Structure formats: C-alpha cells, structure tokens
C-alpha cells in the first residue's frame, strides 16, 4: 500500500490489495518532494515541506476486474490541521467522485461513481477494461490528450474544515468522458498500455449523506497526491518493472549435475522408452557375446544411483573411541 504524510491509499480487487511496484522515475518509494507547500503558521505562502507531497506506484491489474480505492488516516485530523480529509478519485485524468471522512471514522472505500436522482441513488462501479485497438490511423487532438492520460488512478487529498450537512446533490463521473472507442495501434505504440478504466452499469445503492466543507488546500496544491499506474502483468514485464516468468528448459537440455534424483529417474525412464531392444540372430552363440549399452544410458543410471547414495549419507558419524 502507498503511504504518505500519515495517509494510506491502496487499490483493491476482491478485498485484496493489488501488487504494487516502485516507479523508478520518482526515486525511492516513488515519493516526490513538495517545493510549493503552503504553510500558514509563519505567514510564508510558499515553504518547503520536509515530507514528500506526491507518491507514484505501479499496480498489477487484470482486464475485466472491478476495483475499489481504499483510504485511511493514521492520525487524528488535528494532526493534519483540519477536522476532516477529502479524497478525490480520478480515473485516466477524469474526476469520478470524492469521499470526506471525519469524526471518529478514519477509513473509507470508494467503489464507483455515485449519482443522485431525487431520492434514488445509483453507483457505476470502477472497472479495468481491455483497450480496443483498431488499424484505422485517423485520430484527433482530443483523443491524443485522452490517450496521454490513460492508465493512471489519481487520488488528490485535501484537508477540510467546517464540515456541514447539505441537501444539494453533487454528481461526479460520466462514462462518456472515459475512453471507450477503439484506439489506433499507432497511437499506442511505445506506451505499454493494454488496459483502460471504465464504469459499470448503474446499480441501486443506499442514500449517501451530502456534505459541504471548506477546503484548506486549493485544488491546484493538494495536501497529498497518490498516483497508481495500472498495467497488465505482461506490460509490467515488457517495461522491466517485474521479471519475466522463467522458461523451464526440458530435462534433456539441463546439466545432469543440476537435476534431482527424481528428475534423473524421469529422464532415465524417457531414455529407456526410446531405446529399442536389440534382436540378436539365433545363429549367434550366447557365450562370449556382450550386448553393447548406450553410454548415455549408463551415465544416467550412475547419476541416479549417486544421487540416492548421497541422500543416504547426510548423517555424519563421529568416532569417539580412542585408537
């Protein structure tokens, strides 16, 4: 999970945190220092915050899976300088929804974009979807901008105060603002992208309390920013973020001294099955005739016996009697 300034954010699928990997471009822990931190205590509008402001992680995602974004405050709100915290979730550069936590609650989960129509509430759940690729090379500036923002879940965190109930329903997230149309293969070249964010069909949900509050951090200078670059396992391997799965060589191509006894016996059985028995003419006398054995076959037998002998000689015996 990503941790920053006493805040924890992570992306989950089926209540399990997605595997996270460091973003080498952001340095250690994926954290980036804030040089435009606003500190009101000493009257200086721009001071340097000793703690990082932004953190970026790669996460391994699977197309077709629904996901949630979980938030947690490790300290009381007074530690941060407010009476609550606002978490705004954006998918591929588009704001979807936000959560304000306050009072005795220090955790929250957002699983989709919520909407109110009078007293009826619905949610469109967050989902990873495969990018549709077309050979059509035609494109547009708007599409180019959308593609540039693909593959990132962003959470902007702000301190809030003067939290109060509201009757005004605020509605975030529109599926038509997320990419759903096929994208030119040329436009994706070199990007290591195969997934996009999408929203599911509307589902009924319980009524949500609407809150108004005063933001202590402006929109363009949030208290903390969490970025999760979601990629498929293959894309992460292509980017050398994670190692490729090792290719197991056939037993016949591996060095004999690296095989276990069971593997040697398996190789011996394979060799035995491929060796055809030699049929001797009846006129050939039996005495004095020695059937030639395949040298490789004998080596396998000797190696298997050697492995067995070694396994039995693991116990060391010490003679304590005087000569």
Model description:
This protein is of the alpha+beta class and 323 residues long. Helix content is 17%, strand content 35%. It has helices at residues 77-80, 141-148, 185-188, 233-238, 261-274, 295-312; strands spanning 2-4, 7-13, 16-17, 20-22, 31-33, 52-60, 68-73, 84-91, 94-102, 107-110, 112-117, 120-130, 133-134, 152-166, 183-184, 195-199, 203-205, 210-215, 224-231. The strands form four sheets. Strands 4, 5, 6, 8, 9, 14, 18 and 19 form an eight-stranded mixed β-sheet that branches. The radius of gyration is 32 Å and the shape is elongated.
Query: Helix and strand succession?
Result: EEEEEEEHEEEEEEHEEHEEEEHHH
> What percent of residues are in strands?
25-35%
Number of helices: 6
* Dominant shape: elongated
> Taking all residues together, what is the mean pLDDT?
80
Evaluate the radius of gyration.
32 Å
Write down how many β-strands occur, each being a DSSP E stretch of 2 or more residues.
19
Distance between the termini: 65 Å
Largest sheet: 8 strands, mixed
The secondary structure category is alpha+beta
């Amino acid at each position: 999970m990503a941790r920053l300034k006493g805040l924890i954010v992570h992306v989950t699928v089926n209540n399990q945190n997605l595997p996270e990997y460091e973003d080498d471009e952001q340095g250690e822990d994926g954290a980036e220092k804030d040089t435009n931190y606003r500190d009101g205590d000493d009257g200086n509008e721009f001071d340097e915050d000793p703690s990082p402001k932004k953190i970026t992680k790669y996460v391994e995602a699977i197309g077709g899976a629904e996901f949630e974004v979980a938030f947690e405050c490790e300290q009381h709100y007074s530690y941060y300088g407010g009476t609550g915290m606002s978490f705004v979730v954006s998918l591929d550069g588009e704001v979807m929804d936000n959560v304000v936590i306050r009072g005795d609650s220090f955790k929250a989960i957002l699983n989709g974009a919520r909407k109110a129509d009078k007293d009826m509430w619905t949610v469109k759940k967050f989902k990873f979807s495969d990018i549709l690729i077309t050979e059509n090379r035609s494109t547009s500036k708007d599409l180019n901008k959308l593609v540039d923002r693909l593959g990132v879940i962003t959470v902007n965190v702000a301190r809030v105060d003067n939290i109060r109930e509201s009757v005004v329903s605020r509605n975030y997230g529109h599926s038509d603002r997320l990419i759903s149309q096929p994208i030119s293969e040329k436009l994706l070249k070199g990007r290591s992208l195969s997934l996009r964010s999408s929203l599911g069909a509307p589902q009924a949900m319980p009524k949500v309390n609407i809150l108004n509050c005063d933001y202590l951090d402006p929109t363009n200078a949030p208290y903390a920013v969490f970025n999760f670059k979601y990629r498929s396992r293959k894309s992460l391997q292509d980017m050398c973020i994670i190692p490729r799965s090792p290719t197991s060589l056939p037993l016949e191509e591996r060095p004999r001294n690296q095989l276990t006894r069971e593997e040697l016996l398996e190789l011996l059985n394979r060799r035995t099955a491929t060796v055809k028995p030699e049929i001797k003419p009846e006129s050939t006398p039996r005495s004095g005739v020695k059937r030639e054995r395949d040298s490789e076959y004998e080596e396998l037998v000797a190696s298997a016996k050697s492995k067995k002998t070694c396994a039995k000689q693991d116990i060391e015996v010490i003679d304590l009697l005087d000569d």
